[in-house]
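The aim of this short unit is practical: by the end, you should be able to scan a pair of folded records and say something sensible about each. We start with the first protein, listed as its amino acid sequence and then its structure tokens.
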Amino acid sequence: MGIFIIAEIGINHNGDLAIAKQLIDAASDAGFDAVKFQKRTVEKVYTKEFLDSPRESPWGSTQRDQKNGLEFSASQYQEIDYYCKKKGIQWSASAWDIDSQIFLQQFNCTFNKIASPMLGHIPLLKLVAAEQKQTFISTGMSTLEELDEVVNIFKDADCPFELMHCNSTYPMSESDANLLCIPMLKERYDCKVGYSGHESSLIKVCATAVALGATSLERHITLDRAMYGSDQAASIESASLNSFVKSVRAIPEILGSGRKILSDTELKTRNKLRVNV
């Protein structure tokens, strides 16, 4: 089975369904396997004090205005579901609270995703695990002891899962990638391990991750890194998505089998150039 590649739209749509559709189009045309959003019940995720605090944004002057401006309604998610099915691309969303996960269940998405900030939300983790649906679990901002608890929840629920090594900085410095965690996590938990990246570079970190055994990749995507939003700078612009996917899909063939054999093409060169004394 090939590498599963997720285009993280997240909140880079800026609350605009037309932008979301453009990003779905770009991901589908480039050959991504899935797109992913983020779903929050704003009043449940954040305190009233925080939501009342000031923040200038295109939607108003408070944190509440900004957070609500980035959320899609039920009817908009229904349109996203319809549009992704029409395009033939899988979709899901990482829920940041229990109400949001229950909301998403109506769409019967093909997989779930646990965002790194949710690794300490035990009731949410147990709810997701109870669905027994393929779940990708980002590991950013966590200790191994915390991951032990998360993995046990999914194993106890007999829920298939794949960890995704992650450094939760936006954008991430390449020197912080620490990709040798991929084989370490694979050995420690005896599971598949992918990579969720937030670097600004296009391919080299992801290529290294795949070379180290990553079986899935997740990257934020955007129409333009200069757009409003905290995730835009750590995203791949839509114009570069085709190049990204083609490069990733080529890596397994480049890695080869690891067996030292003479190919037919190399044998022809040998017959011409080999000197035996």
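Turning to the second protein, read its sequence before its tokens, just as you did above.
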Amino acid sequence: MPDNVDVGGQSTVPVVTVADSRALVRLNRPREHNRLEPADLDVLRETFGRVDADPAIRVLVLTGTGRSFSSGYHISVIADRLAGKGGVDEDRDGFERMVDRLEALRVPTIAALNGSVYGGATDLALACDFRIGVEGMRLVMPAARLGIVYYASGIRRYVTRLGVGAAKKLFLTAEPIDADEMLRIGYLDEIVAPEDLMARAEALAATLVGNAPLAVAGLKRAINETAASALDLEELAAIRALCSASDDHAEGVRAWAEKRAPLFTGR
């Protein structure tokens, strides 16, 4: 996986790299602390669709360029909307739908948080299955300070992943928390030195890639649906039957008995 570097200091839409069963998505507006703009949402949605359609991709890593992971959605877009300047074709729920799409991805996802995270970007990272942060980072959810009531799926992710108490503290106080507190409340799975971030993300990605893709996708979906109190038992039974009859299940059993690493094909 490439190191986390500033790509010439340029500010562009996210950079997407696919190699070795991994998709790497790098937010790439370092001069604006990787602020998310409407054009970025289009690239991210297209990328998520591409990942879901390609069985060769088994994990997605999301990171940023420069000192911050992301400063969130561009405030001027929201301000223009409030002032009645939004275009007639503006997708007002586009950010929420993009984040929901990330949460629902078939493959496991890792947020490699190279720096502080703000606003809507906090929910973007929460939609990932794993979050690795760096020493010295902070999180701020400024909704109450901006007079905003957050969208439904974002509130659900905060409450189900972090708990009611942590969600209330972050939303209602709009005060920053540091990396240690992010780890304590479960926002981060681990904290590493900045220079170790991408190596740690790669190690976790390798572990995930090494497991049976059908089972990983089925387990992820069932866990997410259970967290949202929306588990479809009939669909779960169908997924369990599919996995039990798969070549990967037979390979996993053989490899376990033979004390070797399994070689899964996703079939």
